[in-house]
Design goal:
The longest helix has 39 residues, at 183-221. The model has no long low-confidence stretch (mean pLDDT 84). Helix content is 76%, strand content 0%. It has helices at 2-29, 35-38, 45-55, 61-73, 87-122, 127-141, 144-163, 183-221, 224-231, 236-248, 250-261, 263-274, 279-288, 292-320.
Length: 327
């Protein structure tokens, strides 16, 4: 196990270095991040050169990359091209909002998608199974921005017009200061802000979880060892819960682990649609402004998360299925 983990970590480091080079090169080719300064007639050429030298943009590509890489590894993520704020502070200030949104969406996806897939497999070819399959394919094929806009129109704008009550907020996040609101009112206010964006992200995951869980469960239900357990006279509920479900969860472990690692990536479009002040929205803004330090920091955080969660998923396989070996 130790040798396997070490080998996977080495592969992960190589992958992250390759990722950083590719993204840094793309940002380098995207244009001049200080173009807004150079076209300002009120700024002197001396000032423009000073700013360029401050950010190291007058140096070669590999010099700039090495400077960024050594700084990132040592915890110095640099300064945003759009001001004097440090990248570390910019990103970490947005993390709580993204974590709140992502964990809520993940909770909804797991608690709905996995049981849905299990029930569809048990009731294969039933009306409920056909309905779930159709809904899953629609969820798969619908872009996330379409889902977000439809939910905004139906569950926020139209619902308020029909009932006269504002159930959900279209954009934004609840304020950090609640004033004189009671605890129950604070919880309700948070749910009203979170529901639409979290549901938008969760719909895609529910579709994926239910389909994978259904396929995996069907494969296990038709396996030889499960037929043996049934032949021994074990109750159907015990056969499914104790023998089938454990092995059927293995593919879902991969999906969930990648979703946890990709919370930021999955929230990019959703945060933009709903005006959610998270890391995903910051990422879009940084790309539009060619803000390389911010883009690199977010990309590397996502990449590190994916590498770690892939390793965690592989380790969990061994606990779910004793046949898995790491030789």
């Amino acid at each position: 196990m130790g040798a396997y983990i070490t080998r996977r970590l080495v592969y992960g480091v190589v992958t992250l270095i390759a990722l950083s080079i590719i993204v840094f090169a793309l940002m380098h080719m995207a244009g001049d991040p200080l173009q807004r300064l150079k076209f300002n007639p009120r700024l002197t050429d001396e000032y423009k050169d000073t700013v360029t030298a401050f950010y190291g943009l007058d140096q070669g590509f590999w010099v700039q990359y090495w400077k960024w890489l050594t700084g990132f590894v040592t915890g110095d993520w640099g300064i945003s091209f759009q001001g004097t704020q440090e990248v570390w502070g910019l990103v970490t200030d947005r993390v709580p909002a993204t974590v709140r949104l992502g964990t809520t969406a993940l909770f909804l996806a797991i608690t709905i998608g996995i049981p849905l897939g299990i029930y569809q497999a048990i009731r294969q070819y039933s009306f409920f199974d056909q309905l779930g399959t159709t809904a899953a394919f629609i969820g798969f094929s619908t872009p996330v921005f379409v889902i977000g806009v439809v939910l905004q129109v139906l569950l926020a704008l139209k619902l308020e017009q029909w009932t006269g009550v504002k159930f959900f907020f279209v954009v934004g996040m609840n304020e950090s200061s609640y004033g004189d609101l009671t605890t129950l009112a604070r919880i309700g206010d948070t749910i009203r802000h979170l529901f639409l964006p979290a549901t938008t992200i969760a719909i895609l995951s529910i579709a994926g979880y239910s389909r994978f869980q259904r396929a995996s469960m069907l494969e296990v239900l038709h396996s030889d060892y499960l037929r043996t357990a049934k032949a021994k006279g074990l109750p159907r509920r015990r056969v499914i819960a104790k023998h089938a479900l454990r092995n059927a969860l293995i593919p879902i472990v991969t999906l969930v682990s990648l979703d946890i690692a990709g919370l930021v990536g999955g929230a990019i479009i959703t945060e933009t649609i709903f005006g959610w002040p998270g890391v995903g929205r910051l990422y879009i803004t940084a790309i539009n402004q060619v803000d390389t330090p911010v883009v690199m920091a977010i990309v590397m955080v996502i990449g590190i998360g994916i590498v770690i969660m892939n390793l965690v998923a592989d380790i969990v396989y061994g606990f779910l299925d004793p046949r898995v070996r790491y030789d």
